Structure formats: structure tokens, C-alpha cells
Amino acid sequence: MSKKNLKISVSGVRGIVGEALTPALVTSFAAAFGQYVGHGRVIVGRDTRITGDMYERAVIAGLLSVGCQPVLIGVVPTPTVQMVVEEYNANGGIAITASHNPIEWNALKLIGRSGVFLTQCEAKELLDIYNQPHRNYVCEEEFRNIRKLDNTFSIHESKIFDNINAKLIQNKKLRVAVDCCNGAGAPYAVDFLEKLGCDVFALNTVVDGTFHRRPEPVPENLKALSQAVIDNKCDIGFAQDPDADRIVVVDEFGKPIGEQNSIVLATEHLLSRKSGKVVVNIQTTKSVADIAEKYDLECIYTPVGEINVTSRMLDENAVIGGEGGSGGIIFPNVHPCRDSFTGMALILELLSEREQSLRTILNELPLYASSGAKVSISSENALKMIRALIRKYKDEKVSTIDGLRIDWADAWVLIRSSNTEPIVRVYAEAKDSQKAEELANKFIKEIEAYV
Predict the structure, then answer these.
(1) Active site residues per annotation
(2) Do residues 240 and 189 make contact, with C-beta atoms less than 8 angstroms apart?
(3) Among 28, 43, 104, 443, which one has the highest count of C-beta atoms within 10 angstroms of its own C-beta?
């Protein structure tokens, strides 16, 4: 078995199907996780990948072997799995999904008993168990039965409706296009938006084990959504990824506004109504910090990784948070997790409350142009390269909480190793697109020269 494309991190374990992520490995990881969380219920959900059923069975075998009770909730968004863990007081949860990765990938996202992902320390403890030569397998008389739960998305939906002004949105009767990427949001998005009074024009809602567009919701993959917005005279368009934890927005002219600006809209909406701190990861646009400053509030940065953001949000009692680079919106009143459905509701509430077009609202916000790229590089070489750049730019304003971020008055750049792929990501922002592109290209060349 090749482990070249197996990634084990705070984000979970993921790999290419059959090459690195085999059923045997998944069973072993599930058994280690079951041993780690103790005998009890473990919620198991998945996205729509054709390999999901196979890996669900492997997870069941692993959990049963160490005395856990698998509770299967089928194809649901990852945030639904997290909320069901908390709702049913389960020992933990496993979401079988590779998120935005291509169809040939799959993964296990591991959730603790509080309904959030494992912390760095917890993940290390789990890996210690996984690497032990023996597992605490139970005998036949200690085997638990498999349980199934239906309609668990209703728990998720109810939490959102309890924390937004649904009537306000319903009265606005917005026209909304949504691209579900044939993923875990596909069975639920249309009904959810219709309950908010929207006229819905949906794309990629068939669940057939494949994705009819490339799964990462970046502008080049959203041409059909953009056209649907234009053709149907929509007020807004939304794009989900395969496990429906991230959301990307298209304006009324069919123009994608960028993954970063999902959290910008949510931040502007919530901080205009309530004082509190904002927590975002280091890869998030400076627009969020500018908005917080406008309201005399604090913006706190964390390393990339949802658990890093949610842990700090809970510590700081933050009002809103997220991961800009992934279109991740975290509204803790619903649940401390990235959630596309919560994101859609908040942005629709913003449009309804202000009675302005999306583009008008965006034009009034402090937005930045961005440029980014990926450079293939091993984790070991990436670490050495980043250390070299830290030494080179030590006299600039730098942050090293996750990779290297260098800030200037009206621009910044981040170089960091991915948690999910054997690459280094370069991300640059500036007030105009030319400067952002020049800044990104400068550092790409420096990395390539090192490689």
C-alpha cells in the first residue's frame, strides 16, 4: 500500500481510495477511535461519494470490534453529524467525507463527544492508540447492535430556524440559485430554502455517487451557477461543497464574490447587531479585521483548521468566526462548526434586513483583491522552506502561528503547508488585483527556486 497520498492531521485521515485509504486502514482507524472514545454510541454519517457505502461498512466493523454502538444517519452534511453527536449525547462521531477533494479521495473526519472535531492533543492521543500493536477487541457477548436514525437533518434545521428571523426572510421572497455539487447538501438544500420563502433554482441535486462539477467551489467551477443566477434573475446564488460545510456566494450579476467574502458578509451582518469578538484563521481576508475595527471590536487569528477556530471562539465567547479561505462560516448560536446552511440563512437574513442588493452591500464593505496558487512539495521540504523564508523576512511584520504570514499596510501574503494535501498554498491579498497577483507570484518563484 502506498502512503504517498495519505494525510493524517487535525482535519482527520484522508487519502486516495485503494491507493492509501484502504478498507482495512479505515477499519483500523475506526477501531482506534472507538477505543479512544470508550464503549458507547458513535454517530456515523457520510457524503455522497460512491465509496462512502464501502467505508461506512468498514467503520461499522471497526466500531463494533471494540464494543461501540454505531448509529447510522446516512447521507447528511458534516455539520449535521456534529449536531447529532451533541443532541444524542454520543461518545463521538465519524463523518465519512473528503470534503472538497476530488472524487477519487475519501476520508474520516473525527468528532469528539462535544460535537466538535478533535483537538491537536486529542488527535495525538488517538494516533498513539492507532499505532499500538494491539487493540482492545471485545468478545462476542459484548457486541452492540447497529442503530439507524432517520431525518436527523431536522435537528440541524431547527437549530438554524431558532436563531434567525425566518419570517423576515420569508416576507422578502428572494430568488435563489443553489449548486449542491451532488453532495451531502443535495437532499436538503431546496426544501430548506423553500421553507425560508425563496424561489429556488437548483443545480446538481441528483445523488448518484459522482460530482457533476469539480467539487471545490472556486469561480472556475461555478459557471453553471453563475448562468443560472443570470437566466433566472436571482438575487443571489450559493455553492456548496460535497459535505456541505462551506458556502460560496454568487452575486445578482452572476459573479462569484470569492470564498473569503462569505465570512465577510456574515461578520458585517452580526457585528452590526451585536458586540463581541470575531475569531478567524490566519488565512482569512483582512476585510474581517477591518469590519471588526469599524465596530470597535477585536478580531483574533488562529492556525488553519476548524477546531483551532472553534476552540478559540468558545474560549473568547465569540459572536462569529470562520475560515475565510474555505468559505467557512461558524455561528456558535447554532453550533460551533462550519455550516453552509447556517451561512445561507445568515446571508439571506442580511439581504432581507437591509433591503439592498448583494452588490450594493459588498460595495460598501472594505474588500480586498486576492491571488493564490498551490506548489507541490513534500511536508518535510515545505517545513524547511518556510523556516528559510522566516529567516529572510524576519524584519517584516510576520506571524508564524501557522506557516508564514507577512503583513504590510495594505497587503499580506501567507505561505503554509496544507493539512489535507502534499502541497504548499500561497495566498496574497492587496487593494488591487495586479498587486495581489504580483505578490503571490513573487513568493511562488521563491518557493520554486527552493524546491
Answers:
(1) 99
(2) yes
(3) 43
Same fold, 7-150 and 155-363: yes
Tally the residues of the chain. 451
Tell me how far apart the alpha carbons of residues 331 and 321 are, in angstroms, rounded to a whole number: 7
Q: Which of 175, 181, 223 is nearest to 201 (CA)?
A: 175
Query: Looking up cell 473568547, which residue turns up?
Result: 316
CA dihedral (298, 304, 310, 312) positive or negative: negative
Using CA atoms, how far apart are residues 383 and 184, in angstroms rounded to an integer? 35
Grid coordinates in use for 429?
Answer: 491579498
Q: Residue with C-alpha cell 431558532?
A: 162
Assigned C-alpha cell, 81: 453529524
Collect all residues with Cβ–Cβ distance below 8 Å to 335 and sequence separation of at least 6: 79, 82, 83, 86, 115, 159, 342
Range 7-150 has CATH code 3.40.120.10: yes
Q: Provide the H-helix boundaries in 105-144.
A: 120-130
Query: What is the third-level CATH fold of 155-363?
Result: Alpha-D-Glucose-1,6-Bisphosphate; Chain A, domain 3 (3.40.120)
3-state DSSP percent of the chain in helix, strand and coil, to 5? 40, 25, 40
Residue pointed to by grid coordinates 434586513: 353
Parallel, antiparallel or unpaired: strands 236-240 and 175-179: parallel
Query: In a structure prediction context, what are the per-residue pLDDT tens digits for the chain, which is 451 residues long?
Result: 455 568 787 667 999 998 989 999 999 999 999 999 998 999 999 999 999 999 999 999 999 999 999 999 999 999 999 999 999 999 999 999 999 999 999 999 999 999 999 998 999 999 999 999 888 999 999 999 999 999 999 999 999 999 999 999 999 999 999 999 999 999 999 999 999 999 999 999 999 999 999 999 999 999 999 999 999 999 999 999 999 999 999 999 999 999 999 999 999 999 999 999 999 999 999 999 999 999 999 999 999 889 999 999 999 999 999 999 889 999 999 999 999 999 999 999 999 999 999 999 999 999 999 998 889 888 788 888 999 999 999 999 999 999 999 999 889 999 998 766 788 999 999 999 999 999 999 999 999 887 6
| Grid coordinates given for 22 | 484502504
pTM: 0.93
Cα separation, 238 vs 265, in Å, equals 13
The count of other CB atoms within 10 Å of the CB of residue 11 is 21
- For domain 369-450, the CATH superfamily is Alpha-D-phosphohexomutase, C-terminal domain (3.30.310.50)
Q: How many CB atoms lie within 10 A of CB 193?
A: 24
Task: Tell me the domain boundaries of the chain.
Answer: 7-150, 155-363, 369-450
